[in-house]
Amino acid sequence: MRGYVLRRTLLAVVQCLVVLVAVFAVGSLLPGDTADVLRGELGTPEQVAALRSRLGLDEPAWPRFVHWLGGLATGDLGTSLTTGVPVGDDLGRRVGVTLLLGVPALLLVTLLAPLLGTVCGLREGSRADRAMNATAVLLHAVPEFVLALLLVASVSLAAGLLPATAIGMDTGALLAQPSVLVLPVVVLTARHLCDLARQIRVSVAAERHGPVAEHLRLLGLRERTVVLRHVLPNALGPAAQQYARCVEGLLGGAVLVEAVFGFRGLGGGFVEAVENRDLPEVQAYALLFTGTAVVVNLLGDLVAYRLAPRREVSA
Amino acid sequence: MATHARTAPGRPQPTRRGVLAAGGALAAASTGLLSGCGDGSDGGGGEAPFRAAFTSGGSQETLDPHVAPNFVDQARAKALYDTLGTYADDMSVRKRLAESWESNAAGTRWHIRLRQAEFHDGTPVTAEDVLYSYRRAADPDTGSPSQVLLSAIDFTASRADGKRSLVLVLEAPNFEFPTVFAGPGTEIIPDGTTDFRKPVGSGPFTHVSFTPGGTARYRSWADHWDGAPHIAELEIVPANEESARLNALLSGQVHYAADMAGASVERLRKAESARLLTSKRATAQQLLLRTGRKPFDDPRLVRAVQLGIDRAALVRIALAGHGEVGNDLFGTGLRGYPGGLEPRERDVAEARKLVKQAGAEGLHITVQTSAVDAAWQPAADLMARQLREIGLRLTANTRAASTYFSEIRTKGVAAFNTTSTLPVSDFLQQRVRGGAARNQTGYRSEKFDRLLDRARTTRDEQDRLALLARAQKIARDESGLLVWAFSDAVDAIGRTVRGLRAAPPNSHDWARFDRVRID
Question: With B403 labelled, which of A221, B135, B158, B221 sits at a CA distance of 20 to 30 A?
């Protein structure tokens, strides 16, 4: 186990580095730079050149990247080319907003998916099972932003039950008025919840009818013991990996949900950073997103390994 | 998501309509039958701040008023600062901090008297503050949109000749110089200001707090020379997604939503909880043909395109009817726009003949476009079909929105562009004159430049405008800057909001939140 952990951790670091290099390379290849964006149409070539030299963008790209990496080693994420504010400050302001969306969504998925999946898996073909399947299919047919706009139109605008957007609210304001979070969290959760629950349902159903379960039943073990001791651990193993993927999905979904509901979170920040060609910011976001994805996947694999060691996951 | 803000005098900033192109349409469809209400907590009373939602991004996100490329920057600057003059709806200049201005007979020395006004810290606004502000904005390193205009001032010769009186000396005569007094990025700041984290201005609101990319909070300033604002607090909040601004307005979370388009406008038209502020002809929709380069260095081809496009169809389809046809000149309805021009009628036979004469039958032309303006892509498709009838093959090349304008400066032979309202003389000087920094077509005409020079040095206003009219008629045919339509600029307000009217962006009354009342 220890060798496996070490190997995977090392690989994770390499993965992050590769992504950073790739992001920087691609970012440098995008047309224009921050000076072009900030001066826009109104800027004269003279003004653009002045800003470019002030931002240090007239220097070669790779030394800038190496410099940024050096700063990263000391925990310094650099300074935003756009605002001149430390990148860490910007991320810090936005991360709270995204966590307020992501953590409740993740908790909901974590608690409800195994429950739903197990119930449906144990009662295949029941009304609950069919309802969940139908809902899952429906949610796959409706893009997340359409779902979001439909919910806002009905629940907020027509019924006046919940706030329509989070425009102008920072982390503190969101905490003071958590009702703002309800609709976005529902949108963010719905599809992943169904996906994960369906995966668990299939595994539970398969394990329940499997030869091992039959054997245990023949040995006279009670059904409850068979399910809790055998069916669930085996069914949750593959689900742990799907669960890790769902964390990535939540990060991606956050970009969209933040936009529709007017949150100033990491998703919107990342999009703006790319549009502004703000490479220090882009790199910091890339590192954060890649790091999260890599760590979560690593944990998912480790849990899967722990639950069912014979199913070793190839790195 | 992804809709950028809109730029001040120049462009409507890239509208990040990309990801959620259908967003507004869907909101419209899904809420069309429902009564949009569900008031937020605010609405009545003077306690809740007045909240205005704008697109942001694509700017330095600073309260430095001299770096104010986008509409949100301008709205924020308007709250905190004053300028010497201000634009009326037709872009003529009205007095603001300046009490009077007059020039010598040659038009080289401008004597300005300031009204009595104070900055938020209680110090008076003086001539030295004006000189400092203008000198700072004239520095290319600052990044003011009015830098070119201000650089005409000779700062070594200009001086204060009293506490509230100064003389600006120009390097060349210019009787249209007062347009600079109202230019964006010419706000008056206290002498010596270099830091804008706790900005001090002389505007109707004082600074409370601001984080780059976040909410800007202001408090009403009772001592403003033009009278205190009617609202106690103002918040300018960023919301890049159009559907988010729309929903926030419909649900009463904000009082003002900037930059509505297409389906959102239709939705708002039916809503009882909101009202539209539609500024007609606010944006000049242009097709730039690079006359300095092949193939449009051949005037017959420029003429062929002018005659070959069907403007009425473009307005009906690409602008969804929210606009009117253009006559290849910027500034319909503005001061200095020549009267009595015949409209451009489509003439396929003549255009086809010109293409044939130029030996350009079947010629492939690539037009640069982007998501900056939602009308461009459909306009490009439609123009391709229209120009096919005269023997030209047009294809569109879509470029990234945020760097679009820097790219088309050097790339391609044809491109879409938009310009918001600004004084006609500035437009001609900065975008049509040969060699001007923002001349994107490469047009060069000695005759045109001479007429502009004569206009600049002509004291009598009517004579001056007559010269400008003559210059414009030449540019209309030759410059390669085709104004095919004018589109509306639409903002929206909640039904409890009073004191705001539809006004063109860049003008005095646009986003003038100090005159707002909430019922």
Answer: B135
Is the minimum CB–CB distance between B483 and chain A shorter than 8 Å?
A: no
What's the pLDDT tens digit per position in B42-93?
A: 334 446 899 999 998 767 789 999 998 889 999 999 999 999 999 999 999 9
CATH architecture of A88-307: Orthogonal Bundle (1.10)
Among positive and negative, which fits the CA dihedral A77, A82, A85, A88? Answer: negative
Q: CB within 8 A of A154, min separation 6: which ones?
A: B30, B34
> The complex's ipTM?
0.87
Identity of residue A94 = R
- Report the candidate in B98, B368, B78, B5 with the shortest Cα–Cα distance to residue B229: B78
Q: What is the 3-state secondary structure (H, E, C) of B74-122?
A: HHHHHHHCCCCEEECCCCCEEECCEEEEEECCCCCEEEEEECCCECCCC
Nearest chain B Cα distance for residue A65, angstroms: 22
Instruction: Check CB contact under 8 Å for A157 and B19.
Output: no
pLDDT digits (tens, 9 = 90+) for A58-111: 988 888 888 888 998 898 999 999 988 899 998 998 999 999 999 999 999 999
- Domains plus CATH for chain B? 47-81+203-273+495-518 (3.40.190.10), 83-188 (3.90.76.10), 281-488 (3.10.105.10)
Residue A206 CA, chain-centre distance (Å), reads 29
CB contact under 8 A, B7 and A152: no
A81, A87, A144, A165, best to mutate vs chain B, most B CBs in 10 Å: A165
